[in-house]
Amino acid sequence: MATSTYDGDIIAWANEQARLLRSGLFSQLDIEHIAEEIEDVGKSERRELKSHMAVLLAHLLKWQHQPERQGNSWRRTIKVQRKDVLDCLKATPSLKPHLQDVEWWDSVWAQALNIATKETGFLYEHFPESCPWKADDILGVDWFPE
Q1: Which of 86, 92, 139, 141 falls between 20 and 30 A from 6, CA-CA?
Q2: Where are the domains of the chain?
Q3: Three-class secondary structure of residue 145 per DSSP
């Protein structure tokens, strides 16, 4: 079988690496790039959790700051994003410590503020500088900010 390069065709490369692993041909493996790809899986999972949480927080902000616009669409988005966050945490329990990490929350909050300001037209100053809610509340099935 012809060898594929990591930079040339990553899918062909990945299939080839899997074949080499299954065949026990360990000396032919591209160890450095395999390690990179494994690390990237973790980064991807962290990005997914952050993205779902940011969308959830943005909708909670909109819910709180635009009560006249509250409706089933926002309620549904909040419900779906809560479920997606909880699914991420269930599938990858090692992500749970992020919920206790101040730097992670700061980053997620910044992303949520970006979303909320774009979607509401409000200035950043309209919203709190940091997340005013507890993770347990944010992820609580029936919780909505007042």
Answers
A1: 92
A2: 43-138
A3: coil
